[in-house]
Amino acid sequence: MAIQIKNLDQLKVMRRAGLLVGQTLQLLRENIKAGMTTDALDAIAAANIKRGGGTSNFLGYHGYPKTICVSINEEIVHGIPGPRIINEGDVVSIDCGAIIDGWHGDAAFSIGIGAVDPQDQKLMDVCEESMWVGIAAGKNGGKLSDIGNAIEKYINSQGSYGILQEYGGHGIGTEMHQEPHVLNFGKAGNGPEIIPGMALAIEPMITRGTHKTKVLADEWTVVSTDKSRGAHFENSYVICPDGKPFVLTSIDGGKAELARFGVEISDLLQ
Ligand code: MF3
Ligand code: CO
């Protein structure tokens, strides 16, 4: 399957899906607190996606049973919401997606609950910034691997972190997971050219220890093999027909964050 190239009308629908995902994550950010269950977060997300006229792309995906993924501490991604209580000091990663009129959005963030270990906060900050570095590097006319190269270089400049190798970003459009796979490491200048209409989910996943992971008996939850804590940030962005990027899952389209890198976002989806 070739990389799906979207026209402006299609991108306008993708923006609606992405914005709903961004707003849902914002709502979760505002409501998450110690003492609540991960299922309570799932319920908030499900209700908000419904209210916004969307449906969940996670629910039923290869049998996945919930609307969001909630991964705590050494769990890095794909944790399944349930009766588990969130505690002070936890590092919680939340991943959410939605579909509107057949078009998908997908995004994630990590957050510390209450007072967190400064090293955990740095882990999250490095992961989040690496996502923005990657998006800023994924420019019109560049090569796909420029993104992973920029992500890896930034992370390694900040300390000793494990960068997950079996998981990465992806194309997104009329399916949540499309070609191309986007590595979070590697040499620059390789792979397909980045062109207008390409939509990519950029999602670095890192730990304070090893890059090695295993999947728990629930067949979903991905944990670090050394139990080191992990972080995960994700946004879906597109190169618009004018050659400028737009972050579909950011409330402001990525305007403020990308401006820090001297990257101007497109006006076409605002
Ligand atoms: N959003 C995840 C990703 O970024 C996929 C979640 S899979 C699910 O690629 F089954 F949990 F939905
Ligand atoms: Co994704």
Write the layout of secondary structure elements.
Elements (H helix, E strand, L loop, with lengths): L7 H24 L6 H14 L16 E5 L2 E3 L13 E10 L2 E10 L5 H20 L7 H13 L4 E2 L5 E3 L6 E5 L16 E4 L2 E3 L5 E3 L6 E3 L5 E3 L2 E5 L5 E3 L7 H5 L11
Antiparallel strand pairs: 1-3, 2-11, 3-4, 5-9, 6-7, 6-8, 8-13, 9-12, 10-11, 13-14
Helix pairs in contact: 1-2, 3-4
Mean pLDDT: 98
How far apart lie the N and C ends? Answer: 30 Å
What is the strand content?
15-25%
- The DSSP helix count reads 5
Spatial order of strands in the largest sheet: 7-6-8-13-14
Task: Kindly state the percentage of residues in helix.
Answer: 25-40%
**Secondary-structure element string:** HHEEEEHHEEEEEEEEEEH
- Uncertain ranges: none
Judged by helices, strands and strand pairing, the structural class is alpha+beta
> Largest sheet, described in full?
5 strands, antiparallel
Task: Identify the notable features of this structure and list them briefly.
single chain, 270 residues, 5 helices, 28% helix, binds cobalt (II) ion
Question: What is this entry, summarized?
Answer:
With 270 residues, this protein is α+β, with helices and mostly antiparallel strands.
Task: Provide a descriptive summary of the structure in words.
With 270 residues, the protein is an alpha+beta fold. It has five helices and 14 strands. It has helices spanning 8-31, 38-51, 118-137, 145-157, 255-259, and strands at 68-72, 75-77, 91-100, 103-112, 162-163, 169-171, 178-182, 199-202, 205-207, 213-215, 222-224, 230-232, 235-239, 245-247. It has a five-stranded antiparallel beta sheet with strand order 7-6-8-13-14. Strands 1-3-4 form a three-stranded antiparallel beta sheet. Strands 2-11-10 form a three-stranded antiparallel beta sheet, with no helix packed on it. A hairpin with a 6-residue loop joins strand 6 (169-171) and strand 7 (178-182). The chain starts with 7 loop residues before the first helix and ends in an 11-residue tail after the last helix. The mean pLDDT is 98. The site of 2-amino-4-trifluoromethylsulfanyl-butyric acid (MF3) has 11 residues, from strand 3. Cobalt (II) ion binds at residues 106, 170, 201, 203, 234.
